[in-house]
């Protein structure tokens, strides 16, 4: 290396050290470079293998190892559990409730800032909500905030570091599962770009729900075995031919017709389809229903919201139980956003510098329906003077003025010609 290159590299390193995180991100975005660690992980092909209680015990033991915790097998177990449609659906209910809830960015006085709120009406923020709430189910979750839009300098996406690629106890991101060294994310240069939700030892709700989900999978598999063995009627073939050549032809024909459940005999050729077994499959179905109910109780607080035969009163009670969990999720999100997300956004992205002195809040103002507004106006109009502009704003109709022949409805008067009863009343 020549003297010129030495001097150039020296001043380059000195300049980079003086750059703020925001300025470094601007240069990286302009160059199109990405130092996101999620882009440098050595991912492995996913294999969908059957999981049993033995794998569950092994995964828990490895994930809770006091010296070198490894969540590789726990992650595989969780992915297998989430293949259950009922479990995924009730988890989505928890997540979608928060994703669809209105929010606002307010200042210290509580005034809403629509421009700042608009910055969070993005796909990356919905992903952030999902990853944060998934910590309830899968334990400690690591969220990456790195990719920036080159034009707007806004955050482009929020990504998740898989559980097998970070060690929460050591606070490092590892390149391959099982590594003992990696990139530290709780301190140093990477700290502003990563948010860990959940404590280091948290394994999530799925660790407790695994036995009931695996029991359902076993029951469904047994049901399929039952259908395969007894659900398809057998085929009977009889023939009076004695030569082996013809016999083998019938045998091959039967094999091509059905894989099993058939019989070949001698005598006149006769083909008969047997009767299906009269076993009762309700035992399998009841097991699946019971497992679904247990999962609903754990995630939503009850099975009334997922039971199609639930009564109205029971469903209302169940929704109140689920509402407690929804509100708890919203509180978790609010704390994570205000304590971790907003400070990081201000530090690493210039587009969010206006967030200083502001915080995230859920918009819990009641949404008024047109029917409710109409009833309210009908009730107040006979007794009070209403502001036409406010009424127009709420109803969406332009009020030009009051008609001269308009009358205010009052209490009805009794018709003097109305026929009286026999008692004279």
Can you lay out the helices and strands and say which pair or pack?
Blueprint: H1 3-18, H2 21-31, H3 53-63, H4 72-81, H5 85-99, E1 103-107, H6 114-118, H7 123-138, E2 141-145, E3 158-161, E4 166-167, E5 172-173, E6 183-184, E7 194-197, H8 206-231, E8 235-238, H9 244-257, E9 262-264, E10 270-273, H10 282-300, H11 312-348, E11 358-362, H12 370-380, H13 388-395
Parallel strand pairs: 8-9
Antiparallel strand pairs: 1-11, 2-3, 2-7, 4-5, 5-6, 8-10
Task: Walk me through what this model shows.
The protein has two domains: 34-229 and 282-361, no CATH class; 233-275, no CATH class. The strands form four sheets. It has a three-stranded antiparallel beta sheet with strand order 3-2-7, with helices on one face. Residues 15-19 and 26-33 have low confidence and may be disordered. The protein has helices at 3-18, 21-31, 53-63, 72-81, 85-99, 114-118, 123-138, 206-231, 244-257, 282-300, 312-348, 370-380, 388-395, and strands at residues 103-107, 141-145, 158-161, 166-167, 172-173, 183-184, 194-197, 235-238, 262-264, 270-273, 358-362. 47% of the residues lie in helices and 9% in strands. The protein is extended. Helix 5 runs parallel beside helix 10 (282-300) and helix 8 (206-231) packs antiparallel against helix 10 (282-300). 21% of the residues are buried. By secondary structure, it is mainly alpha-helical. The protein contains 13 helices and eleven strands. It comes from Xanthomarina gelatinilytica. Residues 395-425 are annotated as: Disordered. This is DUF935 family protein. Pfam families: Portal_Mu. InterPro entries: Portal_Mu.
